[in-house]
Amino acid sequence: MIYQLHADVCKALAHAIRIEIIDMLGESELGFREILEKTGVAKSSLSQHLSVMVEKGILTQRKEGLNSYFKLSTPKVSEACQLMREVLVDRLEKTQDLLKTL
Amino acid sequence: MIYQLHADVCKALAHAIRIEIIDMLGESELGFREILEKTGVAKSSLSQHLSVMVEKGILTQRKEGLNSYFKLSTPKVSEACQLMREVLVDRLEKTQDLLKTL
DNA sequence: TTATATGTTCACAAATATATGAACTTATGT
DNA sequence: ACATAAGTTCATATATTTGTGAACATATAA
User: Fold this and answer.
1) Nearest to B13 by CA among B80, B60, B73
2) Residue A31 forms beta bridges with which residues?
3) What 3 state SS string does chain B have?
4) Where are the alpha helices (DSSP H) in chain A?
5) Model confidence pLDDT, tens digit, residues A11-57
6) Protein footprint on strand D: which nucleotides are under 7 Å from a CB?
7) Does the first or last residue of chain A, that is N or C, have fewer Cβ atoms within 10 Å of its Cβ?
8) Which of B7, B13, B57 minimises the CB distance to A16?
9) What is the CATH number of domain B2-101?
10) Mean predicted confidence (pLDDT) in B69-79
């Protein structure tokens, strides 16, 4: 079912660490080691997060010798993330405004 | 932390029924009853799904007498969903292409 | 060959999210 | 006041996701 597949893509974004990774990838490709250091999570945990995103088509993976490199599969991923961030900011601003009226 | 809040917005989209609801809302506002009939889920379940989306700023809710009406809080929600759908379609097309080469 | 470094996979415990039905609140009609 | 209809909330059973460390596979170096 299309809604389930669509939701699965959303799920692949729905974790703080994965959002952080998408943010740090931006335009560039990064190696596993570099992402590992920047995020500070356990390597097995990172490997699992990355593999979820690869499976769902968020990232593409390239292996070179012992090393793995990751990048966004398309700039649409960044764009979608940016829009969701704006939805968040709009909401935070609204509650901020509400507080001011008190 | 911003990544957690951002992820929470994504989580609010990360369910097949909620994607379906966002799709059916589009431009228009719909009543609880109408969404209930179109989705066919249990009313308590629907109420909970809707409230998650309202809490995270995806939807806005308007109450009128006994009835509740919902709409997207901003067109950005649709746009983000559309982008994620495109990420999905791109991936499906790629596996499709891969199959053709066999 | 042996050792080492890099990621991945696995098993499993803990944390979260989801579905369900009953109870509840509130507005409206009689 | 009483009954009814519309949603919401609650408790809880189930399912899914996540984090952890150990085991594993593989490429490179000594």
Assistant:
1) B80
2) A69
3) CHHHHHHHHHHHHCCHHHHHHHHHHCCCCEEHHHHHHHHCCCHHHHHHHHHHHHHCCCEEEEEECCEEEEEECCHHHHHHHHHHHHHHHHHHHHHHHHHHCC
4) 2-13, 16-25, 32-39, 43-55, 75-100
5) 999 999 999 999 999 989 999 999 999 999 999 999 999 999 999 99
6) 5-10, 17-23, 26-28
7) C
8) B7
9) 1.10.10.10
10) 98
Tell me if B21 sits within 8 A of A6, measured CB to CB: no
- Please list, residue by residue across B40-49, b when 16 or more beta carbons sit within 10 angstroms of its beta carbon and e when fewer do: ebeeeebeeb
- Asked if B77 contacts A86 with a C-beta cutoff of 8 angstroms, the reply is no
Contacts (Cβ under 8 Å, ≥6 apart) of A90 = B57, B73, B74, B76
Task: Judge whether residue A40 contacts strand D, using its CB and a 7 Å cut-off.
Answer: no
Residues B58 and B79: their CA atoms lie apart, in Å, by 12
Tokens 């309202």 locate to B54
Q: Is A48 helix (H, G, I), strand (E, B) or coil?
A: helix
Query: Do the Cβ atoms of A69 and A32 come closer than 8 Å?
Result: yes
